[in-house]
TrEMBL record:
One of its GO terms (biological process) is phospholipid biosynthetic process. Gene3D superfamilies: 3.40.50.1970, Dehydroquinate synthase-like - alpha domain. It holds the Pfam family Fe-ADH_2. GO terms for molecular function: glycerol-1-phosphate dehydrogenase [NAD(P)+] activity; metal ion binding. This is Sn-glycerol-1-phosphate dehydrogenase. CDD domains: G1PDH.
């Protein structure tokens, strides 16, 4: 398998792009048995007082072996099981973060290990960042692209904010462990990657109509990671060693693209805003959470359908004069550049194609299959852009124009 960092360096060099100052992980291992290297890395780095964070779901055997290795390497180790909320979900919220912070303080820790999937990583990246400590990533499922990113999407008083934090100092992705992850989590990782079709479109759109920063290297890395998953969808769905490795490599690469750009634009557009909206709604109404990537995959098809309709109908102009200046300017730009924008929308896969890929990856393909009803889908389409008002997705411009339409008599 191609060394991931070497591929990044080559891609950057081909563009004459400097990677100076970007806080990449020192070590990226994606191989069978990689978890065994964790304790040695920490000891060699002089990090001896380690808090290992997981939740009860992770196999006791992995936690036991890791803790045993840390002690054998002369480290002090403390294991924290993040507790679930009232409905039984471990979520990245204030309570979980404080639970980890208290343990870090009690042990006077030098470093924190995230042993888990996306949620555990976000709790740890924020708690470690707040404590000025490094964290090491040991992913247990190829379910999200957040392992190597540096933004932490966390729930504060029920609202999903993404706050700056840190990426891992090292990542030990053990394919023996990843391959045993539930099929639904593997399919969710594929769904998170499929969402890059619409996130990359939205990023390009925002750049075109507002001049917001765009980074070709991050965009190309993300697109290439997505293409490798499409290419291997059958192997991913069958959870072969090769399929799971390709998926995990893509998720790491997509996370690195966010790390390089410094924000999540390459990986997160309107499809993520729909997913976050549904997550917040489930939390508010006391329902058990759905997997992030499963929501993103289904939302990608919903957004692709809407954008294709807009390509045919055009945006609902007429009220742009009532928009705040920034949005008014963007609306004018979008009007002027509509032929190019239509062409970009035309390059998005058809929603049915997206759903067929999700099915091939053994995941839910539609919002109905996920248990998200039509009313909630429609409401999210109308309101989800408010989850990230600073991002000018096509959904946000469309909704802003609709919201400012004069009331008809
Ligand atoms: N920072 C970023 O850039 C990104 C962050 N995210 C965030 O990630 C979160 C979602 O993470 P996701 O991975 O989908 O789900 P979770 O981390 O919530 O994991 C879901 C459940 O699966 C369990 N689990 C993990 N690994 C295994 C395994 N090998 N076998 C059995 N069960 C396992 C988890 O336990 P455990 O908790 O121990 O892992 C948990 O109980 C969201 O909050 C999302 O916003 C998503 C993408 C990017
Ligand atoms: O989930 C993400 C990328 O997959 C990041 O999401 P946000 O941009 O909403 O933080």
């Amino acid at each position: 398998m191609l060394d991931i960092m070497e591929a990044v360096r080559q891609a950057a060099a081909a563009r004459g792009r400097s990677l100076e100052g970007i806080p990449f992980p020192e070590v990226i291992r994606l191989e069978p048995g990689a978890v065994k290297e964790t304790a040695g890395y920490l000891a060699e780095t002089g990090l001896r007082s380690i808090v290992v964070v997981s939740d009860a779901v992770i196999g006791k055997a992995v936690r036991y072996e890791l803790t045993k290795d840390l002690i054998a390497n002369g480290s002090r180790a403390s294991l924290v099981e993040v507790l679930p909320n009232a409905v039984g979900d471990v979520v990245a919220d204030e309570a979980s973060i404080v639970q980890v912070l208290l343990e870090i303080q009690k042990l006077r820790a030098d470093a924190v290990v995230a042993l888990g999937a996306g949620t555990i990583h976000d709790i740890v990246r924020y708690a470690a960042f707040s404590s000025g400590l490094p964290f090491v990533s040991v992913p247990t499922a190829p379910s999200v692209d957040g392992f190597t990113s540096r933004g932490a999407p966390i729930l504060i008083r029920g609202h999903k904010h993404t706050v700056p934090a840190i990426g891992p100092s090292a990542i030990f992705a053990d394919t023996h462990i990843l391959k045993e992850a539930p099929a639904a989590m593997v399919a969710a990782g594929f769904g998170d990657m499929l969402g890059k079709y619409t996130s990359l479109f939205d990023w390009t759109f925002e750049h075109m109509v507002t001049g917001a920063p765009y980074d070709e290297l991050s965009a190309d890395m993300t697109m290439q990671a997505l293409a490798s998953c499409i290419d291997q969808v059958e192997a991913i769905g069958s959870r072969t060693e090769e399929g799971v490795s390709v998926l995990m490599q893509a998720l790491i690469q997509s996370g690195l693209a966010m790390l390089i750009f410094g924000q999540s634009h390459p990986a997160s557009g309107a499809e993520h805003h729909l997913s976050h909206y549904w997550e917040m709604e489930f939390l508010r109404t006391g329902r058990r959470q759905l997997l992030h990537g499963a929501k993103v995959g289904a939302a990608c098809a919903v957004i692709a359908r809407l954008y294709r309709e807009l390509a045919d109908s055009g945006l609902p102009y007429g009220s742009e004069g009532a928009l705040p200046e920034e949005l008014r300017h963007a609306a004018r730009q979008a009007e002027g550049r509509w032929p190019e924008i239509r062409q970009l929308i035309g390059a998005l896969p058809e929603p049915e194609r997206i759903q067929a890929w999700l099915t091939a990856a053994q995941g839910p393909a539609t919002t109905e299959e996920l248990g998200i009803g039509p009313e909630l889908v429609a409401r999210a389409l109308r309101e989800a852009d408010e989850v990230r008002p600073s991002r000018l997705t096509l959904l946000r411009l469309y909704n802003s124009l609709l919201r400012h339409q004069p009331l008809s008599s």
